[in-house]
Amino acid sequence: MGGVPRIRRWLARAPIPLLRAGLGPLLPAFVLVEHLGRRTGRRRYVVLEVVLREPGAVVVAAGYGPTSQWYRNLAADPRVRLWWRRAVGVRGRAELLGAAEGARVLERYRRLHPWRARLLARALGIADLDRPGTLEQIAGRVPLVRLRSPRL
């Protein structure tokens, strides 16, 4: 797997005020996640691309792997608030998916959105997303997180 290109912090954080203001319908591919810092207990915010929509949930990928701060924070405390589309600051829970479940989600994503899967693979530096039998390995390197809320 090649390295995932890092985006500038100011660019990654630019959508936060828009999403918090309720303008989620303008950015439907992104979800804003409020979580608590595992050491400080302070509120933290991250904007993530929605990989897949499920009833009452969205699935996102930890593109920089399981060492991402937001991912580690969710592992410590799964309580979140979410801003996505018309849902503004709704309470939810994060579910860190294991490699087997992540592979099932990636297979569904690949089947439903083949061209988006190719774009996602390129963005995440995953050359083998479209090859059979590799999804569990990919889900181990790029973990998936299901963000649940009955209000999504």
TrEMBL record:
<dbReference type="InterPro" id="IPR012349">
    <property type="entry name" value="Split_barrel_FMN-bd"/>
</dbReference>
<dbReference type="GO" id="GO:0016491">
    <property type="term" value="F:oxidoreductase activity"/>
</dbReference>
<dbReference type="InterPro" id="IPR004378">
    <property type="entry name" value="F420H2_quin_Rdtase"/>
</dbReference>
<protein>
    <submittedName>
        <fullName>Nitroreductase family deazaflavin-dependent oxidoreductase</fullName>
    </submittedName>
</protein>
<dbReference type="Pfam" id="PF04075">
    <property type="entry name" value="F420H2_quin_red"/>
</dbReference>
